């Protein structure tokens, strides 16, 4: 989603800032409340999956409305203008979180959850890294000026790009850690049962 989606459709900058601020607030507040209430690790994953799904649907609807305005204003762009929706990858992340929620729920249900505290820590590492690598970009895209040349970007953009890249790497490490923890827990439970 951009402030100027196409030639004819303009999305107000303040609306985008409010949407992005609410988006980040809900991403942090929803799992934090679930964690404070002492919910199981699966509930944390399901809570975040629900937030991703809601904001993905809202983002998808905004893009479709803006594209509808473009098609009405300039019919020449009817078939040639293509937008990859922010909502699409939010849905994908939400689905991945829901899958991890289902896996951790199955572990808890069948007694294979050996390390719930470590699972919660890996959840928070994954979640904060995903916020840093995907969601922060949407907020800063509307706050910062957009120069035409690469050399005209401010110096701190390099730091921002590095933080975004590192948070993507951290999210991948957390993902691998969750998968290894899953395999370790299931294997340990299976070996304990076979003895």
TrEMBL record:
GO terms for molecular function: cytochrome-c oxidase activity; heme binding. The keyword Transmembrane applies. The keyword Ion transport does not apply. Pfam families: COX1. Gene3D superfamilies: Cytochrome c oxidase-like, subunit I domain. GO terms for cellular component: membrane. Residues 1-195 form the Cytochrome oxidase subunit I profile domain. One of its GO terms (biological process) is aerobic respiration. SUPFAM superfamilies: Cytochrome c oxidase subunit I-like. The chain crosses the membrane at residues 16-36, 43-67, 87-106, 118-144, 164-186. Keywords: Electron transport, Membrane, Plasmid, Respiratory chain, Transmembrane, Transmembrane helix, Transport. This is Cytochrome oxidase subunit I profile domain-containing protein.
């Amino acid at each position: 989603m951009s402030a100027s989606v196409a030639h004819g459709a303009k999305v107000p900058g303040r609306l985008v800032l409010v949407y992005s601020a609410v988006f980040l607030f809900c991403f942090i507040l929803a799992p934090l409340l679930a964690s404070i209430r002492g919910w199981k690790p699966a509930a944390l994953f399901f809570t975040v999956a629900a937030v991703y799904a809601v904001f993905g649907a809202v983002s998808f609807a905004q893009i479709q409305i803006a594209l509808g305005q473009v098609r009405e204003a300039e019919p020449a762009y009817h078939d040639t203008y293509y937008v990859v929706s922010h909502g699409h990858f939010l849905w994908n992340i939400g689905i991945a979180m829901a899958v991890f929620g289902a896996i951790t729920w199955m572990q808890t249900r069948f007694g294979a959850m050996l390390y719930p505290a470590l699972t919660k820590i890996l959840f928070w590492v994954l979640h904060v890294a995903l916020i840093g690598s995907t969601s922060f970009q949407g907020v800063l895209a509307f706050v910062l000026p957009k120069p035409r040349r690469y050399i005209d970007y401010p110096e701190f953009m390099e730091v921002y790009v590095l933080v975004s890249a590192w948070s993507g790497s951290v999210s991948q490490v957390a993902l691998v850690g969750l998968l290894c923890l899953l395999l370790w827990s299931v294997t340990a439970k299976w070996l304990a049962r076979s003895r």
